[in-house]
Design brief:
Layout: H1 2-17, H2 19-39, E1 47-53, H3 58-67, E2 73-78, H4 82-90, E3 96-100, H5 104-114, E4 116-117, E5 125-126, E6 136-139, H6 144-172, H7 177-180, H8 197-228, H9 230-235, H10 241-269, H11 279-303, H12 307-323, H13 336-342, H14 346-359, H15 364-393
Helix pairs in contact: 1-10, 2-8, 2-10, 8-10, 8-11, 8-12, 8-14, 10-11, 11-12, 11-14, 11-15, 14-15
Amino acid sequence: MNLLRLIIWKEFRHLRGDRTALRMLLIMPIVQLMILGYALTTEVRHTPLAVLDRCNCPASASLVAAVSEPPLFAFKGYAHSETELRRRFDRGEIRAALLIPADFSQRLEERLKGFSSVSGSTGFFVPTDGPGAPVGLWMDGQDASTANVARGYLNAIINQWAGDRLAERLRADGKKIGDLIPFRVHTLIAFNPLLESSWYMVPGIAVILITMVTALLTGFSIVREKEGGTLEQLLVTPVKPIHIVLGKAAPFFVVGFLQLFLALGIARFWFGIPFLGSYLNLALFCAIYMLSSLGIGIFTSTVARTMQQALFIIWFFLVFFLLLSGFFLPVENMPHWVQLVTYANPVRYFMEILRNMFLKGSGLRELWHQGAAMLAIGVIVFGGALAMFQRKSG
């Protein structure tokens, strides 16, 4: 036990003496969290939009005004032909286009006049036969996710605009559109009522930063001893391999906790994200999770001989952990066989835990499944890495 305490004390002294590394540990995660908290967002705003208006009437001008209001779209002016629109798409000047036909106003008026109330108790109103006023939408589909969101915004704005026109016509006839619609939808948004994407992304960024720091620094710490030739010197002393591993991991276990609660403070007081869970439960889940992240660092240090190799191996694992964690894409949207692979990803579980504790206030009763899975993975990863290190050092 005394030998382990000495190794831990040595590592803390090394951290305290390396002021550059200490600044990086404390300052860089803060900077990354604050920048990425704003940069990584699921919202689609300021999409460049052009309009080809062949009608040039008050109705089309009203529609253009509705769709070009910021911040959802950035209006890039009118085009004079479809060829010009295609050229602007090719040059990347615009990502969306609205095409209004020459007979838009006439067909819109005919459509509005054609609405008549169905007699009886249903209260439905239906149009007479005939096509409505067509509007074309062109979207840049290179980024499919962004294109789908922007298209949804445009459709919603156009439908809202059309509903307003219909409501005006019905008011002129002494009717209310609300009296004709057979039902209404009342929406309740739980846990994130303002739909702030930062409330969802910032806890995930915190998990990624903790993973990177604990895995990288643990791996680098042991590999540095290899490169300097001091690891062999330690192994010929009464110090056992398990003392080296635990002594190297313990300081970064503490650093991981400090970074987690630092990130918690930034999320709470800078981004205004409520934390509704228990701090004690959060500390428990963090300790369980770091068995995995520290285990990855130990495993890497066992395999790698240089710092460059260690960086490459850890980055290899982190890319998979990040992409299969649900950080960018929901796990439910992935193919079934990929979803099965994510069950072995500890980042997925800790990200779910942190997000649920922040916004839902979930506790052990709701999160014990994720905690148990994370503990099983952590024991396997940390135990396996420790056994491999002892075998190679024996």
